[in-house]
Prior knowledge:
A: mainly alpha; rod-shaped
Amino acid sequence: MTRKNDISTPEGYFQHLEEQLKAIPAREVKPTVIQRISPWIAYAASLAVLAAVGNFIFGRAAAVEEDAGWDYVSYLSRSLDPDGQIELMETDTLSDEDIRSFLIADNISVEHLETLDHEEDY
Amino acid sequence: MENLQQKFDQIVHEYSEKLYWHVRRMVGSHEDADDLLQEIFLKIWTNLPAFRGESQLYTWIWRIATNETLNHLRREKVRAALRFQSVDGLVERRIEGDPYFNGTAAQRELAKAVARLPEKQRQVFILRWWDELSYEDISAITGTSVGALKASYHIAREKIELNLSDAEVSK
Lengths: 122, 171
């Protein structure tokens, strides 16, 4: 068996090889500022998304709680009587005058009306 | 940083050619050896700041080179298998078609017989026969005992001689 060199390289290969290899450190790209801070940007973005989702969910819950104190009577009256033709009978706000007007409109007799007036005097 | 660059330049100057011949013998073609050499020196550069001098620089560099070469050959085998190409005789085929092979027919047969050896035996044979490293150095590079290396080299040599005599008979 012979040890003699039996393989060769392209002409001038080793001259270029050394230059090429010595250039490796310069070729190694240093990370840019953007590349260095991009993980932090991603982290901040995910936090912002979480905050937005949380705000949406908890905001809705608060709105539902507020809705619990909503005036359904007013809502219904507005829905059923949009032109305001039906007066809402709120007994606690009716005055004696309102009752008297109602009774007169309902053709109550004058005697009966006087009786009622006397009862009020007691 | 400047100090590291100087050290790296020194390593390139001292080892690039030696490592090229080793890698070229292992992979069988100039193009593959050239690509692999870039990877090896990139690895040397990236690991150089962590080199603490527990082992000799010489041993450390050769260890990187031989490990990278073995990994490269394994990756090639996987790639060939994934393409349903024959894994056997990959290096041998390269030697057969190598335009930069300028030896005799007998030398080509020797190179092909070495390529037929299992990876580890081939590595030991090339380090001892062509790179002319001592068993002690090979032991430090490969982490194998000197006794085991001697046995491995002996077996490799016998296989090659058998291969060459078979090739001679078949002519």
